[in-house]
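note to self: dont lose this again. the chain is below, predicted strucutre after it. 334 aa total, dont forget to put it in the shared folder this time
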Amino acid sequence: MSKVAHSSDQRVSGRHGWTLPHVLVFPAVALGMWMIYHPWPTTGWVSTSVWIFATGYTLLSLSSCFHETTHQTFGGSRFLSIWVGRLIGTVFLIPYTVYRESHIRDHAYINTPSDWELWPYSDPNTSRGFRRVFVWFDLMLGMAAAPYIYGRIFFHRDSPLTSKQIRRTIWMEYAFIAVTWGLFLLTLDHFHVLRTTHSQWAMALFVMTTLQTGRKLTEHLGMVSFDPILGTRTVVGRNWLTRWTTYLQFDIFVHGPHHRHPRLHHGQLKDKMREYVDNHHDVAVPVFGSYWKATVNMLPHMWRNPGVGVNLGAAMPGKKSVANDADTGARLAA
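---
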């Protein structure tokens, strides 16, 4: 067992709510999509490229907002979190309930075979060769990989989602996504703008999904421990750029403390990380001063052995070493 014990407290209280930069992500995404179609100050490739990257980054912030809604802490409102999450999930082709159920298990069973969100890296039934190929598919074609990875928890024959109510909700969310995207594409085609904008929008989505998958891999790939602090890479920025980008992403870069205290307000995660480090001087805590350093630490695992936990030699966890699904879900939803 690691020297930093796995905390049973998943309900650390803290202030919730939002701040203006986080709320502005919604009009920022809309502005970015518009500017891709009407680039400013020129219509040249430089302006277009800048707007494509900017839009991709705002979409990344939107995905971080999506993550915030799964913990139902967005705006301090469970109702608002659910419906904002469903709208964002529609954009990313991932039903809110699918994402939430998968993410709950990522917190309960981090790096274990029961961590559906980290498939195939957490699954000992996948070969190293398969994972070496899949990790590049995951990174380069995340818009296809992410809906597949998250959808597995619903469509897989061994799905843990046995509740008829939950499955009915997910079917309705999938239907809403299909209808919404169908109407959206038909509208674009009707006004003859689909063919003139699809390549730029596709590139913005490519930027977003590559950054998002890169973040996921940097935080998890190559980590052996099942402990939320020792089993994730945490970034506590030492320069203004890392601190600012961390803030725009709801401090999700401070990943270890978030895994241990999933409902703690993101603004308090850095203090928690400093507290852990100060209290465990004898433990090599995987905390980095910049995201670049964390990424460099992760990169060799992309071709050496893209895996976590058991796939890196950890002992198969026993039934008592992870939380109960229903109990964990209740704590996260409370």
